[in-house]
Write a structure and sequence with these properties.
Helix content: 10-25%
Number of strands: 17
Oligomer: single chain
CATH topology: Double-stranded beta-helix
Radius of gyration: 18 Å
CATH architecture: 4-Layer Sandwich
Order of helices and strands: EEHEHEEEEEHHEHEEEEHEEEE
CATH class: Alpha Beta
Largest sheet: 9 strands, mixed
Bound molecules: succinic acid
Number of domains: 1
Length: 275
């Protein structure tokens, strides 16, 4: 197994078949996942049952509350965009399930149907972004907590409900909020990580909305600089596995008139502690 750093975030893992890896390779993979927080794989043969088996070998599965699930398994979420649909799932920067008290640890995304061009996924490295924050900003966010929500997306009149994505979504009654430290200590690597994201973080606890918005926008402008982000071009057989505690992602919506289907399995995490 070979692990090569990829642009500004993550690493490409080669010489490994996820479906048939040995227990020793699984240990090496865990180490790479802790070190990089984002792994890319090419030329995998990972049908739904093998996708599930890999996920179960790595951790325990947690099911998304809103997405449709695959006919293959209720544990596989479909990230689907039909040919005639305008809006895509995950088209803005976010990290999965930060609105839960115990956010998801990681997500394993497998390409099933790809557009001829476009549909890349962009990623951001939140550990590197935290390290590079100016010291006055580090001081400003130390000890803060932030509120994360899904109501503005999936609740009644939520942003997604007003689009042509609505028919694919369920769970309007399952919306809710959670609060987390703004700087977390990553549960495995111990690194300090900035844990707010544009999709789900709505404000800082004890701050008003406008004040929160101004600081969040400053943090987001920092994270989205090219030195902390990268883009992954999907090919048949591609798989990505990201750590939701130290990355963001967003799916480009630049393939109107074509379909795209990805299978996502999300792995359960643990409560997040302040750094
Ligand atoms: C997601 O937000 O999990 C989907 C990412 C993608 O479709 O590329």
């Amino acid at each position: 197994m070979q692990v090569s750093p990829f642009k500004n975030c993550g690493a490409v893992v080669s010489n490994l078949q996820l479906a048939t890896m040995t227990d020793t390779e699984l240990v090496e993979l865990r180490n790479a996942f802790t070190e990089y927080g984002l792994l890319f794989f090419r030329d995998q043969d990972l049908p739904p049952q093998e996708h599930l088996r890999f996920a179960n070998r790595f951790g325990s599965i947690v099911v998304n509350k809103f997405f449709k699930t695959s006919a293959d398994s209720p544990q596989i979420a479909e990230v689907r965009k039909e040919k005639n649909q305008q809006t895509n799932i995950g088209g803005g920067w976010h990290t999965d399930h930060s609105y839960d008290d115990i956010p998801a640890m990681g997500s394993i995304l497998v390409a099933r149907t790809l557009p001829k061009t476009g549909g890349d996924t962009q990623f951001a490295n939140l550990a590197a972004a935290y390290d590079a924050l100016p010291s006055d900003l580090k001081t400003k966010i130390e000890g803060l907590r932030a509120i994360h929500s899904n109501t503005h997306l999936y609740g009644e009149n939520g942003l997604y409900r007003l689009t042509d994505l609505n028919e694919q979504l369920g769970g309007m009654d399952r919306v809710g909020d959670a609060t987390h430290p703004v700087v977390i200590k990553h549960p495995e690597s111990g690194r300090k990580v900035l844990y707010v994201n544009p999709g789900h973080t709505i404000q800082f606890e004890g701050w008003d909305f406008a004040e929160s918005r101004a600081l969040l926008d400053e943090l987001y402008a920092h994270v989205t600089q090219p030195q902390f982000t990268c883009s992954f071009n999907w090919l048949p057989g591609s798989v990505t596995f990201w750590d939701n505690r130290c990355t963001w992602h967003q799916a480009n919506n630049d393939y109107q008139g074509q379909a795209r289907l990805m299978h996502r399995i999300t792995l359960a995490g643990s409560a997040l502690d302040a750094a």
